Amino acid sequence: MTWANRCAVAVVGVGFSAVERRTTTPLGRFADDAAAAAIADAGLTPDAVDGLATYPTPPFEGAAARSGEDMVDVEHFLQAPWARGVRWYSQAGEGMVTTSVRDAVHALAAGACTTALVWRAMYVPPGTYGTHAGTAPGDAAFAAPYCCAGAIPWHALAYRRYLERSGGRREAMAALVVEQRRNANRNPHAVFADRALTEQDYAAARMVADPLCLFDCDVPVTAAIALVLTTADRARDLPRPPVYVAAAAQQTTRREHRLHYTMDDHVDAGEPLVRALCEQAGLGVRDVGSAQLYDGFAPSVLYWLEAAGFCGRGEALDFVQDGRVAVDGELPVNTGGGSLSQGRMHGMGHLAEAVVQLRGDAGERQVADRGAALVLVGSPMLRGGGVLLTADSL
Amino acid sequence: MSDGPVADGAWARPVPVPDDVTAPFWAAAREGRLVVQRCGDCGTFQHPPRARCTSCGGDPMFTAVSGDATLVSWTTAHDPVVPGRPRGLPPVVIAVVELVEQPGLWLVSDVDERAELRIGDDMRVAFDATAGDQVLPRFHPAGDSAEGPS
């Protein structure tokens, strides 16, 4: 059954801050810049914003989480001088930024607000990760004492198992990673806009946790990206072409473990999310013109490709060869560079890139097929979500 | 008993903090016994411990298991991001093992560096590492002459 809110809401503004690695400028300033850019892009003034939604979780555990410094939560914008008209907000603790988009659609469609700002700000803390106190409460007690902490070992353990089962070679990943870097080289908002990457660079990269090498891991950045959403009827009066939210769903698949990925079930875990999106929009995967697939670690792109049915189980490493996922390929993937090369924005870069592509504003990296843009955030085995965006109202 | 090979004398492993649900696991480990939750109603094992059986909603109880397992996956992690661990120490082999009692019943371990590991290898528990005042069950390739409970 199609979604009651299908294309009821549109993205009418998108804004990017500067993108840096480490900086002493407070993160809140990056978020202010992105918000101002998005609101101006929408042809609005800040006092038009009466709804706020974000997923603010900092990308590290155990360190400080000060509003406006280490993270940008709802409170940061409620303190803004222009925000006195805000009458609705939502701050997601699970599900990443696609949850915030879905929340905003619901609020706008229900009349809880008229104009919603949705943002994500990401921060690289000083020093190395994990420098806080050495105790392991809760589930971490069963993993951290063995050096299994954070996302890297999860992904490495899962990826070894994936390669074993699919018969794939880790060297073949170079095709995807280098293609994404080419895209970033054509994206002015990418942290690696000016830095090339070759297959030789990939082959020579140091191992982080085998089979994951350095270039299989996303690049931490300090940056913010914001979107402005409003109802479809209001969108028609605004200057930029509306990009409609045709579907928005959360990853709710039951899982057994939280210590690490369950490793063998990425298709089973991700397929229901993609099916829900297609049913909401009344579209099929064949209608997808481009895909922005979360790549905190490169193998997640493989898992999403298989979960969405773009190729069969265990076939994704073959699928990404020969330019098939290039901007001018059969299925353009991560056309802005993704988290690997645009920068780690926990899915917000993927969302913004889908909007830019559907507007036809992507310049040298513009895809030809401006059919539905699929955005899948998180990993099939984690709590994320997805949206389907369209240039035309369905 | 020492802090084990991972600690390498240069740092201390993060210390498990037992809570109301997990305390029996750590108490048993101090006695050199591996126990895992098993549901009193449907008989399903689960780990890590939970307040209820995730299969049927019943009451889980800690049950001794054999300590035999197979290797599910592993990775050699360079400078793993672990609370309190300085950079520049030797890499660590992090593994997931599946207890023979039930498919999907997985535990995390670090493994002494070996020439050859293969998915499916037989593994065996030993209680040869500590973190603070807690004893850690660790898994070794089954053919090795691992230390037994100390």
TrEMBL record, chain A:
Residues 275-375 form the Thiolase C-terminal domain. Pfam families: Thiolase_C_1. GO terms for molecular function: acyltransferase activity, transferring groups other than amino-acyl groups. This is Thiolase C-terminal domain-containing protein. It comes from Pseudonocardia sulfidoxydans NBRC 16205.
Automatic annotation (TrEMBL), chain B:
Residues 26-59 form the ChsH2 rubredoxin-like zinc ribbon domain. Residues 64-128 form the ChsH2 C-terminal OB-fold domain. It comes from the Bacteria. Pfam families: OB_ChsH2_C, zf-ChsH2. This is DNA-binding protein.
